Amino acid sequence: MSWVNEYAGSISPALLYDSHSRIIMERQARENRTMMDIIKYIDYHYQTEISLQDIASHFFVSREYISRKFKQEFGINFSDYLGQYRINKAKTLMLNPNLKVVQIAEMVGFHDVKYFSKVFKKQEGVSPKMYRSSNLEK
Question: Which of 47, 80, 94, 125 could form a disulfide with 132 if both were Cys (CB 3.0 to 4.6 A apart)?
């Protein structure tokens, strides 16, 4: 057993630190890839019903993990992120005067135009119609 103690004592603390750092960096890279994949998933599916459970099942991670990562990465929870993402897409569509607000709401994943208007006003400070009219005048 004494040779084990000698061997363990001969391992450089710097080598152990380097190995530990590499493991941590690999884990962070894997987590970053997962978050990037989740963001891509949202980009492709934001028009449909997306739940935290849907994403967790798709990526084989827990809902808690996703919630924690969204809070760490963006400072907001998943549902707020999704709402903001959808509203930002809607703002772009608002520049097309041929689309009605109800159409835009459905195109970005809101199936209730009143709820869409409520979320839009909360995020932007004005109703969708006011936003549109002020931006089309420019």
Answer: 94
Length of the chain: 138
Domain parsing of the chain, residue ranges: 2-75, 81-136
Three-state DSSP string of 6-75? HHHHHCCHHHHHHHHHHHHHHHHHHHHHHHHHHHHHHHHHCCCCCCHHHHHHHHCCCHHHHHHHHHHHHC
Assigned token pair, 55: 């994403």
- The DSSP-derived string for 76-131 is S-HHHHHHHHHHHHHHHHTT-TTS-HHHHHHHTT-S-HHHHHHHHHHHHSS-HHHH
Q: What is the pLDDT of residues 48-74, one digit of tens each?
A: 999 999 999 999 999 999 999 999 988
Q: Which fold has domain 81-136?
A: Arc Repressor Mutant, subunit A (1.10.10)
Model confidence pLDDT, tens digit, residues 1-54: 555 555 555 555 555 555 556 656 666 666 678 899 999 999 999 999 999 999
